[in-house]
Design goal:
about 475 residues, Rossmann fold, Protein-Tyrosine Phosphatase, Chain A, 3 domains, 9-stranded mixed beta sheet, 6-stranded mixed beta sheet, about 30% helix, globular
């Protein structure tokens, strides 16, 4: 039965007129150019800047502050200025900015006055994807882990992939974002409809959920955008979709590209079966069109990670990688920073850090912890964005209520202006309404460590969650616990 009809996307070969590039149609990357990145230290910007530099272009950039990403770029010979003055972009041929950089930014304003062409990060990435056999991984949740798994498998198989991913593997370097091979793995972000500027050969859709209501009307609007993304693959490409997800099932009938499904559903092309959960690893089997394809193991817990791995198995198979190679790579997958990342242990208390910033992601992270058999689970959550907090007050409370102790801090506003009409304390109030007696609001995150440390005991697991700067608590909390 056909569901709601969503708009079909662009077909390969059609080039829309873009206002994002002043006076140009596309980016003439065949010539050596000076390309300046505003916000170059961002998770999505820094690997893109490195890739562009590897293609022979002169790259400069700016950022608010020095960090690991900017230091790495500087070590590669890329000039980075701290602060947004036009010093480095005066002679730029092109200025690249992300959705987080506002039009009033001094460098964007300078480029407008000088007639320097400007382009959004997503549009530049879309242009670059045309030069590769590209694999785009989209979905409300699981993009970073899934794309990292795919890149790791390709790297292990000797395929020399380049990768533009919003997270780095734990304890190792990501595949180099340089044009060393013909394959490019891209995390395709749906925020601001950025993924509609991208042109994947193979497109993954992990799931579809309500989020980013500051740029989408509702869930139907989000689903329509995912249909457009899926329909952008060429006739020789394919869409890999998690058929377990209700949002994906809703749009499946509207996707006319070749579709390969994965999940636990009996009708999945790559069906997950015989899942065995351990504390630090999970084993499962995959059947391809009813035939046993292979047995796999990942050093991670949680069904969400099993589904992420199944997507990687399916994509790897489509690129000609045998199940044994894929299985060996997944068994050695190092994980991704800030995705249930183990930060350390002190006096029997284990600290984990996770990027979870949506109610469904929080629920998955807490489920992950439950599989591991800890004692008490203590959740520290920093809400990200006023708009998201307002939209999901009840859902945040319901997800967090599954922890034994909950601490909610003030909202990390990120790209938004301060909004006094919503307060993170409302989440705690709603948690308490469920009968939970151990939920606390601490506005200033810098005071959390001293407040929490005396309440911890051996066997506890502390989960630090959020997309802002809450990860800064990991090291000081470990030190405070160790000091007693």
């Amino acid at each position: 039965m056909r569901g709601r009809q969503y708009p079909r996307g662009r077909r390969r070969g059609y080039r829309s007129t873009r206002a994002g590039v002043s006076g140009e149609e596309g980016v003439m990357l065949g010539l050596r150019r000076h390309i300046h990145f505003v916000g170059i230290g961002g998770a999505g910007m820094s690997p893109l800047a490195e890739l562009v530099r590897g293609m022979g272009h002169h790259v400069t950039g700016s950022d608010e502050r020095c960090g690991a990403a900017t230091r790495k770029l500087e070590s590669l010979g890329i000039a980075v200025q701290y602060g947004h003055t036009p010093d480095l972009c005066r002679d730029a041929d092109l200025l690249v900015y992300s959705s987080a950089v506002r039009i009033a930014n001094p460098e964007r304003a300078f480029a407008a006055r000088r007639g320097i062409p400007t382009i959004r990060r997503a549009e530049l990435l879309g242009d670059l994807m045309r030069s590769f056999q590209s694999i785009g991984v989209a979905g409300t949740h699981g993009k970073t882990t899934t794309s990292s798994m795919i890149a790791h498998i390709l790297h292990t198989a000797g395929r020399n992939p380049s990768a533009i991913i919003g997270g780095s593997p734990v304890g190792t370097e990501a595949p180099p974002p340089r044009p060393v091979g013909s394959l490019l793995v891209v995390e395709a972000d749906e925020y601001d409809r950025s993924f509609l500027s991208m042109y994947p050969t193979l497109a993954v859709v992990t799931n579809i959920d309500t989020d980013h209501l500051d740029c989408y009307r509702d869930l139907d609007d989000i689903k329509g955008a995912f249909v457009q993304y899926a329909e952008s693959v060429p006739f020789y490409g394919a869409v890999f979709a998690c058929i377990d997800d209700p949002g994906v099932r809703d749009i499946a009938a509207n996707i006319h590209a070749v579709m390969i499904t994965y999940g636990t559903d009996d009708g999945a092309t790559y069906r997950i079966a015989e899942v065995n959960h351990g504390r630090d690893k999970t084993r499962f089997e995959v059947f391809q069109n009813k035939e046993r394809f292979g047995e796999f193991e990942i050093p991670m817990a949680g069904m969400h990670n099993v589904r992420n791995a199944a997507a990687a198995v399916a994509v790897a198979a489509a690129t000609g990688i045998d199940p044994a190679t894929t299985g060996g790579a997944l068994a050695r997958f190092p994980g991704v920073k800030r995705r249930f990342e183990f930060r350390g242990e002190a006096r029997g208390v284990r600290i984990y850090d996770d990027y979870a910033h949506h109610p469904r992601e929080i629920a998955a992270t807490l489920d992950d912890a439950a599989y591991r058999g800890f004692g008490r689970i203590i959740a520290i959550f920093q809400p990200h964005l006023y708009s998201r907090t307002r939209s999901f007050l009840e859902e945040f409370a319901n997800s967090l209520a599954h922890a034994d102790m909950v601490i909610v801090t003030g909202i990390y506003r990120s790209r938004e202006d301060v909004d006094h009409t919503v307060n993170a304390a409302e989440i705690v109030g709603r948690i308490r309404e469920t009968g939970h007696t151990n939920a606390h609001f601490i506005e200033d995150k810098s005071t959390v460590v001293d407040w929490l440390a005396p309440h911890l005991r051996s066997g506890d697991a502390v989960l630090i969650m959020g997309a802002g700067d809450i990860d800064e608590l990991g090291s000081p909390l470990l030190e405070r616990i160790a000091d007693g």
